Amino acid sequence: MSSQDWLEKDFYKVLGVPKDATESEITKAYRKLARKYHPDANPGDETAEKKFKELSGAYDVVGNETKRAEYDQIRKMGPLGGFGGRGAPGGFSGGGTGHNFDVGDLSDLFGMFNQGGAGGASRAPTPVRGEDLKADLTISFDDAIHGVETSVHLTSDAPCSKCKGSGAKPGTSPSVCSGCNGRGVNDANQGFFSLSQPCNKCGGRGRVVTESCTSCRGQGIERRPRKIKVRVPAGVKSGQKIKLKGRGAPGRDGGSTGDLVVKLTVGDHELFGRKGNNLTIKVPITFTEAALGSKVTVPTLEGDTVTLRIPEGTPTGQTFRVKGRGIETKSKQGDLLVTVEVAVPSKVDPAQREVIEKLSRVATANPRAHFDIPDDPENADQSESEADET
């Protein structure tokens, strides 16, 4: 790739990504196209080989944070770039001085300032970190409270299982590129300035695979199903995420492997709920237990029981706290919150009705006295209406 390509070629368009694409999006687009046009996948196809070199050159620029910033700045300045009008072919006139300024020197100028001097040092291929992957994991209520070791299943890019990520046929190994001596770049001298550009022979990798792995076609990466163990700590909640370092997509050119982020979904429990580090449970009690007081047995998540004393005159909806029987985490031990609800029978037999009617005749307190309205339906001036259950 010539230095003039920095001005004349749209590297973002070559990779099929927008100018504001993230590093991850650029890497993903390059890998997809590189696999499609790689010479090993298209033996003898000169068009595919040319396209692959073009992709490698574009990615070497916009896939590198520093080079991308220089490239965007140069493109923003435009062809003139403040250096006057068009001079001799392939150059710009230097503001009437009669000296030609080569287009390629413009990118060298930015590189020179970044490197701290003219003709800055050649840079080896920049390692690119692998992508972070995401996975969802659903666990039971009990497993969320006590913790569990389980696995997630996903299909993603991974180091080739046959060549262990080298890209070379098993029994062989990549060799140092003779075109760049392993640097991945070549220097093109242009007078006072010097331009570093990706090596055409190795595509900027610094190494050459003579015999490619037949499984991954020399890429060192394959897409395959993976089973990854996940250790879920005790006390996790729905929506919480667990990051597994180095279990994501493999890096490029010596870059580190990305991470795997697992998002948790916790199932419901038939008896218990959760409020922070506290467990909650609703316990039905009879009218007599609420009115006269009683002791009731309450289950716990551990499988044993606790005895709860119900005071005389307990209203429905009253919540009692059982210390230390909730969720235990590293920072706190929760409690068990027991809410009692007076159970009203949907049907009563004659004997029950007789007892309840006797109770109603001796009950003198009006629970609706604070409404300050007549409580006698026969004497009250009001219309009847039916209420729907909610």
Give an overview in words.
- A 4-stranded mixed sheet has the order 12-13-17-16.
- Among the domains are: 5-115, DnaJ domain (Helix Hairpins, Orthogonal Bundle), CATH 1.10.287; 269-376, HSP40/DNAj peptide-binding domain (Sandwich).
- The protein is 24% helix and 25% strand.
- The chain is built from 9 helices and 17 strands.
Summarize the structure.
Helices cover 24% and strands 25% of the residues. The chain is an alpha+beta fold and 390 residues long.
**SSE sequence, one letter per element:** HHHHHEEHEHEEEEEEEEEEHEEEEH
Radius of gyration: 37 Å
Numbering strands along the chain, what is their spatial order in the largest sheet?
12-13-17-16
CATH H-level superfamily title of the domain at 5-115 = DnaJ domain
Number of helices: 9
Give the terminus-to-terminus CA distance.
73 Å
* CATH-derived topology of the domain at 5-115: Helix Hairpins
The CATH class of the domain at 5-115 turns out to be: Mainly Alpha
Q: Report the strand count.
A: 17
Specify the biggest β-sheet: 4 strands, mixed
Instruction: Give the second-level CATH assignment, the architecture of the domain at 5-115.
Output: Orthogonal Bundle
Percent strand: 25-35%
Helical content band: 10-25%
Uncertain spans: 80-122, 383-387
Q: For the residues shown, what is the average pLDDT?
A: 79
Structural class: alpha+beta
Question: Based on CA inertia axes, which overall geometry fits?
Answer: elongated
